């Protein structure tokens, strides 16, 4: 997923990662994913965030009975070379608004992305 927004002298690149975590459905909590970090159960198709991380998680079904998936969406990786700079994100905001940003002066090349 890649989006590039160009405004007055600012190039902002947004990249992300997606990870899937397989979890076993608990017999007392059918159709719910257990987040071991928050120590809470979440209903299918529910999204949530973890404190201190710029990441969104979502409980989704899996193809095998008794298994569910927690899908993680988070900020990606960007290689920044001078004169561009990586600006820190704001963890008080929700994902993806909490992600870092890249600022490049108008004469700078666009940064590489991985």
From TrEMBL:
From the Swiss-Prot or TrEMBL record, state where the protein is found.
Answer: Secreted
* GO cellular component assignments: extracellular region
The Single domain sits at 33-104
The signal peptide stretch is: 1-16
What keywords would UniProt list here? Answer: Secreted, Signal
Query: Which InterPro entries does the UniProt entry name for this protein?
Result: SVWC_dom (IPR029277), Vago-like (IPR053308)
* Name recorded for this polypeptide: Single domain-containing protein
Q: Source organism lineage?
A: Eukaryota, Metazoa, Ecdysozoa, Arthropoda, Hexapoda
């Amino acid at each position: 997923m890649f989006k590039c927004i160009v405004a007055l002298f600012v190039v902002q690149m947004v990249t992300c990662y997606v990870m899937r975590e397989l979890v076993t459905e608990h017999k007392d909590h059918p159709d719910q994913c257990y987040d071991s970090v928050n120590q809470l159960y979440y209903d299918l198709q529910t999204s949530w965030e973890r404190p201190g991380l710029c990441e969104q998680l979502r409980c989704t079904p899996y193809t095998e009975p008794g298994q569910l998936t927690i899908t993680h969406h988070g900020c990606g990786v960007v290689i920044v070379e001078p004169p561009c700079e990586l600006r820190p994100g704001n963890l008080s905001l929700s994902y993806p608004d909490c992600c870092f940003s890249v600022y490049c002066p108008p004469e700078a090349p666009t940064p590489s992305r991985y």
